[in-house]
User: Fold these one by one.
Assistant:
Number 1:
Amino acid sequence: MVMFTVTRKETSPIDSQKPGTSGLRKKVTVFKQPNYLHNFVQATFNALPGEQVKGVTLVVSGDGRYFSKDAIQIIIKMAAANGVKRIWVGQNGLLSTPAVSCIIRERYAADGAKASGGFILTASHNPGGPHEDFGIKYNMGNGGPAPEAITDKIYANTKTIKEYFISEDLVDVDISVLGVSSFQGPEGTFEVEVFDSTTDYVKLMKSIFDFESLRKLLSSPKFTFCFDGLHGVAGPYAKRIFVEELSAHERSLLNCVPKEDFGGGHPDPNLTYAKELVARMGLGKEAPKDEPPEFGAAADGDADRNMILGKRFFVTPSDSVAIIAANAVQAIPYFSSGLKGVARSMPTSAALDVVARDLNLKFFEVPTGWKFFGNLMDAGLCSICGEESFGTGSDHIREKDGIWAVLAWLSIIAYRNKDSLDGRKLVSVEDIVRQHWATYGRHYYTRYDYENVDAGAAKDLMAHLVKLQASLPDVNKFIKGIRSDVSNIVQADEFEYKDPVDGSVSKHQGIRYFFEDGSRLVFRLSGTGSEGATIRLYIEQYEKDSSKIGRDSQKALATLVEVALKLSKMQEFTGRSAPTVIT
Ligand code: G6P
Ligand code: ZN
């Protein structure tokens, strides 16, 4: 057996290693600084209880972005030196974020061991390449992101670090080849197993959805389908599930070969960045050459986000989770015995709230960040959850799940068409959404993002909005001066959350203004940007009147947008006359 030794290396703290909402995300050039990754990995090992490092199995993989392959070898060598027993790596270092969560929860080694956690190498939907972003985050034994107590400790460790441990003489493992490599170190054997990236995840999906009825839908000539992997890690899963298992045509897959730089694109599934899919679905500026497919979807770099489209039709993520919740029990076998509860992040529209009330379900509103859902799920309080930021998921794992969301939608379409696939016109995505609005009312919704704004200016804008909350009569006077037809603001606050499971309190989670007619404005600073500050403005208006639910959402929301921009003095503070992205 190949032997290795352990070397202790001296190091010193490097600034800027504070993990954000979803781990540490920085430019590749930052990660390539001497010791930058090493310090963070050692700080993570030191933050975990000893029994979660010594002798355990860990997963290490990610979305395949530039620098992943180097990072995997470094982490393997550091894990060996820190007494980890076994490392699991997806072939070529590829595992989607939901697949890592699934593997931590469901996979067993030959000796019966399970993984006690894992490093996910991704910067999610941020671009990749030598001059773009890299990222790393740690997930715990429940398959979910490390809680704040751990990430705070990691950060504190990075500020005092003096040494790290590495097995420099451990040869690089060929991660393109399936199999187990064994080594002998001072603390016994150490092994690296490279395995197929999709098998465990596919097995889980098959236990949740009725693949037989999905296959019937996807092979029906009436149903046309398109999936855009945006050159992220979703590609191999899409190929395996949609094409090999469910008989979709190979040509229904766009950009499904993972690339280190995502083909130069921005792997974020929204109307701005998923350009090719948007054009094909008939939602681009120009009419497409061919008749658009009935259904289109995309996932982000690490395949946890999703966008759902119908023919010439966009489903907002806030509507998507509400519609999945409303149909889950009938359409998805995993939920057939009922939902334990549902949850959404605070800025997500209240479409889900209305479904929860109607179905008499437990309902939770949590701060932005998937980890808050994880706690509810571990406590058996929540089955389905979602976020406006194109995240949807369920308690099958502890991450949001892009492919799962697509399968959930396909299941709803299959269920709605179960008796008519060979006969009448297809009940389309648009039909399903419009029927939902007719039943529950419609939440018009839009989000304005101001990216890479000066951090000081962003803080000042937020402080201004908090200050205004002290006197609502003055605010109302001001907004009536802008538009006399806008309804009164009746409540305003900063969102604060007390976790019902562990009692922890999260403050300053976004500034909210509530209007008398049920409309709402929310302002928050993003926790995921890697440069400057990103201000997000979320605008929502509820319409119950079924004769008014068919309007264009930007038109329906124009008044509220004007009020929001003037109230916040957006242009004065940021110097921006328009947002970077509107979704
Ligand atoms: C990540 C998190 C989500 C969050 C999203 C947007 O994807 O997993 O939970 O909603 O980032 O966060 P931001 O702070 O940028 O709005
Ligand atoms: Zn992601």
Number 2:
Amino acid sequence: LVAADGTVGETIFGQMTALAATHGAVNLGQGAPGTDTPGFLVEAAAEAMRSGMNQYPPAQGLPALREAVVTQRAKEHGHHVTPEQVLVTVGATEALTAAVLALLPRGGTALLFEPFYDGYAAAVAAAGAEIVTVPVLPTPEGFAPDWDVFDARIAAGVDLMIVNSPHNPTGMVLGREDLLRIHAGAVSTDAWIVTDEVYEYLVFDGREHLSLAALVDDPGRIVTVSSAGKTFNTTGWKVGWCIAAPEVREAIQAVKQFLTFVGSGPFQPAIARALTAHTDFGAQNRDSLAARRDVLLDALAEVPGARIHRPGAGYFALVDFAEVPGPAVEHGGPGRDGAGPDAFALNAHLTAEYGFTGIPVSGLCRTGSPAAAHYASTIRYSFCKAPEDVERAAAAIRRFG
Ligand code: PMP
Ligand code: GLN
């Protein structure tokens, strides 16, 4: 597990991909799309290569892409920024890491909502800072942060927080009040806020993604991060960006130049075109994902005792196997409080015997944390796979159930 304990090893995604491959199982682990990017994007990148855009692009990113981000922010969020505020990065991952390294003081404190995308903890560890967490827990309506813990963390003092909505892995979509409450907490402790909005277009069932920087009068402490990977099924192109006040953007760019210097040139004009002319693809992608989500959830609903969380957004569904009788408990061994199965052991069993693999959610938590205990029997399944793989996984799940 990378850096959830401050150590670096193979990511949970790499480990579970290897597990699936060993058994020829359907890999519902890593959130890697099984459907391709649209042809118009491939053509746009090829055209950029043919026209000679094959050398280092400008350090801050191609002006056309920065302008496209400005247009997209205004259109989708009513958030008016300038190209000077935009920095193009190698995926959201680099934007997050560079922002953390630029803004979080050594020995400082970063607040993460747990479970969390593993790269956050790695970035905080690289910055030489401490992590405190706020659990994200199921509620009757979906998922929500534990606000009492949030208030206590703020009272103790925080230098930076990473806010991920829509949230990986729970699919939680924070509302206006939630976001403003987080902002007020940051103001009171004078913390930076880095928002990770990579799933901004993939919000289901009429929900709405709200971007914090668009909701407040003074977004000066906010760094907004997004990426083209999820929106356009281009996770392999690694085109992301962040938006911040000009001097904050400069500080992040100062770090970025020594991480990767610049990002891939020919993909930037292609994403620029997609962001301005083809955001309807984001909506199509969302609808197609929602359909695959439902295929998976229908099959999971047939597993007696499985507690299924219908995600409001993103790539993932969480299933708690704590109450599943029979093989789950026999093969999973004791999990939470000795009651349910341990998700790591159960996931290995389901992979070997039934042919489907997910990510144990405690692998996205810090070892021994309250969130890790809460999610001890919970597995994350990704439904962004090819429709035939989702069908194959659904059949495998039905064999188990
Ligand atoms: N943030 C979250 C919440 C993610 O799930 C991912 C997964 N890819 C990333 C960031 C990384 O995005 P990118 O591939 O653009 O670096
Ligand atoms: N974000 C994806 C996930 O959560 C995977 C990204 C990665 O492998 N680093 O599964």
